[in-house]
């Protein structure tokens, strides 16, 4: 049975003030969102989210209903998301680069009551419905207003005020679907307690507040952006810069020139492409206070080149869908290249060995566990997996780390990436880091596959479209250097060339696909 709802006083009392803070008189005229030529104030955002919440109630959305969203980074994302939260419903924003098969799985798995989508996603939605063999109500809208719908009429007629009704801190607030490197997407359930983390890193470390402009090239369906560009920015009164299109170096440069962000959230691949395209040398890139990087390991050569060109620090960080917010990050006054920094405010972190014993020796590798307010309640309908990784408020990240002599956390790859070669553990990321020191190599991935004797040996995949000289000369140069800098058992036995490396819809490397390529087509 749903718990009895409590009113706005409870919302403020527990300090989950994402919605309540928007109606502060001193903030109403401040800009909340910038998107193209549109500028939406906090006051307007408050009224819009109330209208959308009231309209959603009119179409039958109730407290604790799950509602899927396929919406780009546009103001309507905020109107729908906040409107749903105001009435106690549970928004589930989806990656719009998922396949129709993945969306079909989520429709069926989530048991959602409604699907909200832009008309540009209508085709994949209809394909997904057919594949899922399910029925679900939908709201299909045109953000450009070129076609009207019954729902848009309801929004126009809706009241601009709506009392916020919120259950307890432990009740479900929103879901995200995590598309891991293998298997089906997992529904990650977050409670209202997650929102308590909104102020920690952005507020306590970066001192973000009114007057700051936050631009995330990662889309709002990613935890990195949802947590910091949405939850933290609105809680602290900053302005959020939106772009509905998928980011590329040219569009990112245009947005930085046009909107002058003070904080930029992005991923190493995009930083690299901005450098290669000459965009990082533009004057407005030097005006940014902080660049954050997450999603994958930042190669040290890219980080140093970026900081040389812009004069601005890059704060390498790491988080997860299961924590929503970052759990490790470099700080402006405490940073070290090649590391993920230290635990963020409000986070406890420990590295455990194979027996579950905390590692105290510097440089010893183990699995990272974190404890913070934003740890998820668990996975939807995956009871055993939930018990495995969520224990007494701690979350097992399945990331391998060591802590160096300076107390900084160094990422060593994923637990399922670690390989035992000749009886000794090998971290693929250590080898990949060395390979990426070659200027011709854009991307690198190391996997372990059995040879004809059944022994696991290392195979290297590289994206290197502009090799100078022959492949034979390149391979000899690379292997000579690797063998001089790494133990022999860490040196790959074979190199494969690819135009790109396989990734999930969320940009995670799919090592299993690389292993499959070797197993199906090659022997060594």
Going across the major beta sheet, what is the strand order? 2-1-10-9-11-12-13-14-15
User: What is the 3D form?
Assistant: globular
What is the CATH architecture annotation of the largest domain? 3-Layer(aba) Sandwich
Radius of gyration: 24 Å
Structural class: alpha/beta
Number of helices: 15
Uncertain ranges: 1-16
How far the N terminus sits from the C terminus, by CA atoms, comes to 60 Å
- Tally of structural domains: 3
Query: Under CATH, the topology of the largest domain is which?
Result: Rossmann fold
Q: How much is the average pLDDT?
A: 90
Strand content bin: 15-25%
Number of strands: 26
CATH superfamily of the largest domain: ANL, N-terminal domain
Main sheet makeup: 9 strands, mixed
CATH class of the largest domain: Alpha Beta
The amount of helix comes to 25-40%
Please provide a brief summary of the model.
The chain has 15 helices and 26 strands. It is α/β, with parallel strands linked by helices and 524 residues long. The longest helix has 17 residues, at 42-58.
Description:
The strands form six sheets. The chain has a nine-stranded mixed β-sheet with strand order 2-1-10-9-11-12-13-14-15, with helices on both faces. Strands 16, 17, 19, 20 and 21 form a five-stranded antiparallel β-sheet that branches. Strands 4-3-5-6 form a four-stranded parallel β-sheet, with helices on one face. With 524 residues, the protein is of the alpha/beta class. Helix 9 packs across helix 10 (268-276). It has three domains: 34-166, 3-Layer(aba) Sandwich (Rossmann fold); 213-414, ANL, N-terminal domain (Rossmann fold, 3-Layer(aba) Sandwich); 419-521, GMP Synthetase, Chain A, domain 3, CATH 3.30.300. It is globular and about 70 Å long. The longest helix has 17 residues, at 42-58. 30% of the residues lie in helices and 24% in strands. It contains 15 helices and 26 strands.
